[in-house]
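Hey, quick one: can you model this chain's 3D structure?
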Amino acid sequence: MKDTEEKEYIFNSNYAGRYITISGNKIIIDGKDVTADHKDAKEISIVVNGDLENLDVDYCKGIAISGNVGRVRSGSGDVNCSAVNGNVQTGSGDVECESVSGDVQTGSGDVKATTITGSVRTGSGDIKYKK
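Sure thing. Here's the predicted structure for all 131 residues.
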């Protein structure tokens, strides 16, 4: 995370952290369970303003990261981000990033990036990038 301490907003709540995990009905930020604050939510969209080391999500409507991220994994949901320093994986959903320094995999969805240095796989969808 940057020295200016960027914030993540979950359910319009403001959190600071480097590692976000959403699994089942649990929301964990840097090892702290913040689930109780949002137990009645029906739809999850994740917006990160700043850098993040790791994002691991079972399911969501979509992920948008305006900074750099180390790795993104989602069971389902679209992924839209600036630069990924590792891999991007989603079970179903489109992946759109400026650059990916690792592999990109989606079960069903389009992949669009300026550059991807690793491999790209999609079960069904279009792939547009430069290597």
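One thing worth noting: DSSP finds no helices and 15 strands in the chain.
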